[in-house]
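Researcher: Here's a chain I'd like modeled. Treat it as a single chain, no partners, no ligands.
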Amino acid sequence: MPAKDGIRSARERRAHGTARIPFSLYECRMPELYANVPAHWHGEFELNEILAGEGLLFLDGARCSVSAGDLVVIPPNTLHAAYPRQGAMLHYDAFVFHPALLGTGGDRSVTDCVNPLLSGRLAVRRQITPAQPCYPTLRACFRQIFACARENTARADLLLKSELLRLVYLLEEDAAAAPDRRPEASDGHAIRPALSYLAEHYAGPVTVEQLAALCSLSKSHFMFCFKRATGMSAIEHLCQLRIRAACEALGSTGRSIAEIAADSGYNNLSNFNRQFRRQVGCSPAQYRRNIAHLE
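Model: Modeled as a single isolated chain. Structure tokens:
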């Protein structure tokens, strides 16, 4: 998930909600608000509804092409990233919630149904498209969950909890009928030290050899694992982080473009402008004007 308070760690440190309201709802708009959502993971559950456009999602190494109408289920600690298609937009709403909303304790619904889903022992369908038989029922459930989150009242929370449990029931029912075989997540786990390091130190000098050493992998094997888990090279991912940080600074500060470029890791302004336009589709100055207009 994107973080308005800046990029800190590939394992998100920001709290999605509070103990009193253990969920958050986000409007994800690319490239209007930011260029992409770089590879990261968090301990919360996430549900996405694709509203418009098309893009690519990476879920523990699985490459998913998404478009308007698709639903996405992201269990806790899943390495995931989102990118709009080249020259296209990608708009989606994301509901992120603490697993405690699904219930705690030792009753069999939790131990036999909820916990396997949260731990990853139960592989449910991650992407639900309009062509799949389960889609109408799941879409109605998603819509009710998002509506409750928008209402954001204690009374709506009661319905929200019941709909989340209904969602677990529907996902497990679908998994039993047509299990989703997803690739092993070992590549994603292997490169997490590098992802966290890049998220912390994207503005400084970084080498592939340095990142491979952090993961205790050879350079060649590290590059292979990184590409398979995220869909891009480590240097491409670094560039994504830098441009994303620049987008956040352009939208939230009055600093000059040259200062923002330097703070994002670019010593050459021409290179920064070229990379920014390639990823976002416009110049930094135009992006700043677009953000001001949206606000």
